[in-house]
Write a structure and sequence with these properties.
Layout lengths: L3 E3 L5 E3 L19 E7 L5 E7 L9 H15 L7 E6 L3 E4 L12 H22 L5 E5 L1 E4 L1 H7 L3 E5 L5 E2 L11 H11 L1 H10 L2 E2 L1 H6 L5 E3 L4 H14 L2 H34 L2 H13 L4
Parallel strand pairs: 4-5, 5-7, 6-8, 7-9, 8-10, 9-12
Antiparallel strand pairs: 1-2, 3-4, 10-11
Helix pairs in contact: 1-2, 2-8, 4-5
Length: about 290
Amino acid sequence: MLKVISTLNGFIQPLRSLHIVRCSARRYTLCPFYTHDTLQSIRGYNILQLSLQHYPLNILTSQFMESLTDFFNQIQDRSISADALIIKSSIPMIYSAGLDLTELIINNNFDLDKCENYLTTFESFWLSLYCLDIPVLSLIEGDCLAAGCIIALSTDYRIMSDIDSKMGINATKVGITPPFWVCRLLSQAIGVSRADRAIQLGTVFSPKEALNIQLLDQVVSPKDCQAIALSVAEKFLFVDSLARRTIKLRFREELISELKNRLNSDRNELIRIISSDTTQERIRKLLKITKIV
């Protein structure tokens, strides 16, 4: 069983975790990082539910992101059949704790290259999710922090269970400056002024606080999460698919284009910040605090 407690600056610390990963036979993948089920809705839509299970905290390691990127690309090219996608977690009290900070430790030039490759993988992962033309919903039943929050922001609708959990982008707490596209994502959801303040301070929000600032679309009882997510997905699918896909792309194409034009310069700036002595010290301190014991 996974137990977590809040720690300094809103991060989470695993107390003890021992897991043997098993994938249910009724599911459609033996991938150790996730399972996916097809949910049949009342109207007969093919709604796919993706359950993240990269223990203990759904940390976005390179392999995890590469696996998910491949999965999203298969949905986009119709190799995997899905009318809509619901993204949730199989791990109690955790949606995702964000990036793998061990990938950001830099001691030499080799580590610099490794860090750059990791950030490139993260960008590709995000684009594969953000560019999906089907409706994508986040069903959040636990802490949704840092890059975990970025996943949720990249979806069309965000539902969170009304439990003791937090959501937000707290990267500045370890000295990391989120790239421009992350700032844009958050500002599109909660407004420029609120996003500016939240990212500067690394603020994390309770479900009700997140709902009040429109970081979430709904906060629901834990027992109702699944049914409500299915109902919302059906509402998206009731609209003409071509019209809906066209509108979705139209609202995303400016940010996608700007990201592609600024990829190298933005990534180089982020690496410069990550490799600074102060940021490296903060990352090492956090890794020491949050180690698995």
